[in-house]
Amino acid sequence: MNKTVSMAAAALALVTTMTACGSGSESEGAGGGAEGGGGGDTIVLGFSQVGAESGWRTANTKSIKQSAEDAGFELRFSDAQQQQENQIQAIRSFIQQGVDVIAFSPVVESGWDTVLVEARAADIPVVLTDRAVETDEDDVYETFLGSDFVEEGRKAGRWLVDEYADSDEEVRIVELQGTTGSAPANDRRDGFAEIIGEDDKFEVIASQDGDFTRSGGQEVMQAFLSSHDDIDVLYAHNDDMALGAIESIEAAGLEPGEDIKIISVDGIKDAFQAMADGKINVVVECNPLLGPQLMDLVEKVHAGEEVPERVKVEEGVFTQDQAEEELPNRKY
Ligand code: GYE
């Protein structure tokens, strides 16, 4: 039922965007020139966002909107509410509008070939940001700007290996996965598994999709707790799910960070607060402030300049002893 409602809302949002853009393009007609959907020299950027599922995403959207404004681009922004079909529709609409560049953060990895080929046929360069795609097609995107999610998973695993270095006892782990089929869920799972797989005292006893949301984390953790009474560690693929899970752990009369150690990914302010309060043990950073780098790449791609196929974001790992000091510096 929720799905229907959210899809209807998304369709409405799309129509609104299209109407607004339609009138924009008309007035730009006179300016014409080689600038696709844009008037004069203004770069028109169509951006399809995943949704508004997490604190990370909110910060990412803000960064993109602000940076597009700072760069003087005309941004046509569409929120897919975590539905791939909405993203495909938005990209098709950007192609129809003849925008100069399309950028998007693909909700899942597969299923993009058809629409990417359509963009290529229309000669509109595509920039991937945040999440990657799996494709059999050549030259369907110019560059991919985003974090190394496998490495993030490895960092989470390394912290755990260190934490239990002096113990021979079995370590029972539950995993809250991000959206099934998404690059960060696949890669954070694989990177973590690679590291803990080196020692068989580590065992992932349950692993399930919490869709990167607080409510997802809370519900799935509640289910984990009702079927297992011997959980040592929670590995959450993002902070929002970890924060939701903390509610369920506390509701079960257990102490998060003590009875169950918590590893999370992202580094939003709320998670730093939870770390300072002793409820999360470690956060692997994933930086959402991709806007400035993205606009830079968009400009280059539009000008026909060479760009690297892959641009990675630099990130760190933070533990409880650093949380208090780092908290005032967090921008998201
Ligand atoms: O970790 C999560 C968000 O793709 C890196 O998506 C992003 C992830 C991020 O919902 O919080």
From TrEMBL:
InterPro entries in the record: Peripla_BP_I, SBP_2_dom
Cellular localisation: Cell envelope
Keywords recorded for this protein, A-Z: Signal
Protein name: ABC transporter substrate-binding protein
Stored Pfam families: Peripla_BP_4
Gene3D superfamilies (alphabetical): 3.40.50.2300
Signal sequence bounds: 1-22
CDD domains: PBP1_galactofuranose_YtfQ-like
PROSITE patterns from the UniProt entry: PROKAR_LIPOPROTEIN
Keyword Signal: yes
Alphabetical list of SUPFAM superfamilies matching this protein: Periplasmic binding protein-like I
Domain of life of the organism encoding this protein: Bacteria
PANTHER family: D-ALLOSE-BINDING PERIPLASMIC PROTEIN-RELATED, GALACTOFURANOSE-BINDING PROTEIN YTFQ
Species of the source: Salinactinospora qingdaonensis
Domain Periplasmic binding protein, first and last residues per copy: 46-305
Family under the similarity heading: Belongs to the bacterial solute-binding protein 2 family.
